[in-house]
Amino acid sequence: MLCKSRLFPWAKLSPFFPSCSIRTSAPLDWIHLKTRFRAVDNSTTAKQAMLAGKPPYCLTVYRAGRLGQKARRGRLGDKVLVAVKGEMRRAYIVGWKMHHKQIVHGVPRSDSNNIVLLNADGNPAGSKVLVPIPACLAATNDPTLKKIVEMADKLV
């Protein structure tokens, strides 16, 4: 999409300012409402959504916050409710595109926000995770997350 010369008069003057490099908002440090994900399991719903160019996006984060309220911000290993192909599904966050100020020692940073979709009964929808997932997820007590770690070919 080209810049309007009225809004950005310098865009036409110099070839060093292409329109694609203009950012209107700062990168955020968390997963929140309407965050887009990349489904990284081999389920049919995940494949169809990613091939159609309509990735899943976050509706709710299932995590306890402070003072008995629910948290609105998610991070690695949290369960989220996502909208994918017009239906609502639950998923786990297995990769997090962290801002450079949020880097945690021992947790690898991924290029995209990755999720693994769950069935209605709470088990993983696919039989394989297509990307490496962080090894810190193996130390959790959640049985569903342990199944996801076992499905992965590689831990980082």
TrEMBL record:
PANTHER family per the UniProt record, alphabetical: 39S RIBOSOMAL PROTEIN L14, MITOCHONDRIAL, LARGE RIBOSOMAL SUBUNIT PROTEIN UL14M
Taxonomic lineage: Eukaryota, Metazoa, Ecdysozoa, Nematoda, Enoplea
Protein name: Large ribosomal subunit protein uL14m
UniProt cross-references to Pfam families, sorted A to Z: Ribosomal_L14
Matching CDD domains: Ribosomal_uL14
Record GO terms (molecular function): structural constituent of ribosome
Keywords: Mitochondrion, Ribonucleoprotein, Ribosomal protein, Transit peptide
Similarity section: Belongs to the universal ribosomal protein uL14 family.
Subcellular location: Mitochondrion
Organism of this sequence: Trichuris muris (Mouse whipworm)
Main localization category: mitochondrion
Cellular component, GO annotation: mitochondrion; ribonucleoprotein complex; ribosome
GO annotation, biological process: translation
